[in-house]
Amino acid sequence: MKVRYFPGCTLKNKAQDLDLFARKSALALGIEMEEIPMWQCCGGVFVSANDEVATKLSSIRALSDAEEHHSPLVTVCSACHNVIKQTNHQFNTDSAFRQKAVNYLASDTVYQGGAEIYHYLEMLRDLVGFDEIKKKVVKPLTGRKIAVYYGCLLLRPNSVMKMDDPENPQIFESLIRALGAESVYYPMRNECCGGYIALESKELAEKKSRSVYESAKSAGADTIVTACPLCRYNLLKNNSPLPVVYFTELLAEALGAKEDSNE
Amino acid sequence: MNNRQKQEEILRISGVNARKCMKCGKCSATCPAYDEMEYHPHEFVYMVETGDIDRLMASQSLYKCLSCFACVDRCPRGVQPFKLIEAVRLMNIRKQGNNHMTANDIPSILDDDMPQQAIVSAFRKYTK
User: Fold this and answer.
1) Which residue from A1, A160, A234, B86 has the highest number of Cβ atoms inside 10 Å of its Cβ?
2) Could you give the 3-state DSSP secondary structure of residue A83?
3) Boundaries of domain holding A151
4) Could you read off the pLDDT of A83-114 as tens digits, one per residue?
5) What is the C-alpha to C-alpha distance for residues B35 and A37, in angstroms, rounded to an integer?
6) Domain housing B46
7) Which residues of chain A from 18 to 77 reach within 8 Å of chain B, CB to CB?
8) Same domain as A244, residue A149
């Protein structure tokens, strides 16, 4: 199976592991991730104002590419996923915005609003299946106690993201169990790490990050797993006593794809 | 623009109906930036509803929102306080010279591990 892949700015720079292990794991699962040529940064956060147009055009270009190729659009970074999915929602529900965006783009191929957007986790659940993944695990992560960290952007706003129950999600936990590890429940798994406030107030970022890793630690976890480079940065920068790793790295490890040197 | 016009503009670009608010305070209770704010999410909604815009526009609280969408998802009335905060902030930074952060501020904040995502996100929220 082939999918169109939007990596985003951070996966090409500070979060190269997130990208590398996503590609390696996908190959091990029989999925070819075709990077969208000339993709542009999503902007990191969705601007909700309905008269904001220019900042959303990069997302629409990516959506249009996927529609043109009749392939699912896959993102790995939580932020890219959130921005692209919310932009698509606005495109399909706000006709004034849609018209302005189409006019701005003035492209030969007009986006029709039909792209199917999957976060990599959703790709694993819906296009591969956790049972299939379980069968392909060659190095089960037996004995590991993993705290999955959703943060904000994967789940909310739920009316648009529709990934899982926003207050009691299971998708990330199900993946961890399929890889043979124990998934540790902790209350702060879907609360905010502070996000970009790290630039504005290091104190607030520290307070928010600490409440997350302390919650995970007191629940008995040995590792925190995330899909978001900014979550990982905030937790580590603010002295998380637990290692914080990208979920694609654990996946590649369990699939035996981590040490492949084919890249 | 007078207060009334600003209120209309905020309601228009946010698409929020502030009158739906039943003042339960759940948005503020769940807000991760609550402690840092002068005016809290439920107060934002009330101030927009009553047209108390200038005080809101002058407040640093506009820049404390983390865009986590907790107030959006946990509001029992679907008010979406986040969208109001965003609209008020945009009214500010869309004015010439009103950026909350500039490119010159970045070098002193940067460190070797900071992901690009942090910088582009902050720029999108604080700068036009």
Assistant:
1) A234
2) helix
3) 135-255
4) 999 999 999 999 999 999 999 999 889 999 99
5) 44
6) 3-95
7) 41, 43-52, 55, 77
8) yes
